[in-house]
Design goal:
Immunoglobulin-like, 4-stranded antiparallel sheet, 4-stranded mixed sheet, about 240 residues, about 50% strand
């Protein structure tokens, strides 16, 4: 609001000012920001605030687009595939408003891709690229080979906690332990198998569920190809 003044005048001499009092200008005081349009990975948002003094002034500011993000269900490095083998890449962890715009192959003679599904055609190397609506791109290196893809590493986890299983585990009678595995590369064609050294002490089924049967010690062996993980179980 603009500055002003109050002038006091004599009734008998209206042209003469007895006293002048200055009124300082009141600056704008704004309320907290209110988001009027939320930002996404592809569009900017807006926010505004109003003056609490004059009730008329308003400030409007843009809100920057969200940073695009994406996760793929493949680890860094080269993804091996056998000729004619297919693998579907899953894209997760997208920022709000984002989506997959396109999939492309650098060499459709080696491998093609449709909606994330990669199909190996012939031996060679190729790059598979996924582009998001926000402009973010992720590239996967693919190596197509004649032979089956072998397991290079095997990790066994506690399925409930998601943490890596300890090499020594203690169970109570009738207690169960659910195991899960992480295989690298994810395209390995070598199946995971489970075995027990003593079925009377503890059993393990094809889904990795260990059941304590009798007091004693037993070894649970998890295997995929040439990779093996052994877990020593004590039943009390």
């Amino acid at each position: 609001m603009k500055a002003g003044e109050i002038v006091e005048k004599c009734q008998n001499h209206p042209n003469e000012a007895l006293k002048k009092t200055k009124i300082p200008a009141l600056g704008h005081k704004y309320s907290a920001w209110t988001v009027t349009k939320k930002a996404t990975a592809v569009t900017t948002g807006t926010r505004e605030r109003n003056c609490t003094v004059c009730k008329k002034a308003k400030q409007i500011e843009p809100i920057a687009k969200l940073k695009p993000t994406a996760k793929l269900n493949v680890v860094a490095g080269t993804l091996p595939l056998k000729v004619k083998q297919a693998f579907t890449v899953k894209v997760t962890g997208l920022s709000k408003g984002d989506s997959v715009a396109a999939w492309t192959s650098s060499n459709s003679k080696v491998a093609i891709v449709k909606n994330g599904k990669i199909t190996a055609k012939k031996v060679g190397n190729v790059r598979i690229t996924v582009k998001l609506k926000s402009g973010l791109t992720k590239t996967i290196k693919v190596r197509v080979q004649k032979t089956d893809v072998a397991t290079q590493s095997l990790k066994v986890n506690n399925k409930v906690s998601g943490k890596k299983i300890a090499s020594n585990v203690t169970l109570k009678l009738k207690q169960t332990l659910k195991l899960s595995t992480e295989i690298t590369p994810v395209t390995s064609k070598q199946k995971v198998t489970y075995a027990t050294s003593n079925k009377k002490v503890a059993t393990v089924n094809s889904k990795g569920v260990v059941t304590a049967k009798k007091k004693g010690k037993v070894t649970i062996t998890v295997k995929s190809g040439k990779k093996t993980v052994k877990i020593k179980v004590t039943v009390k």
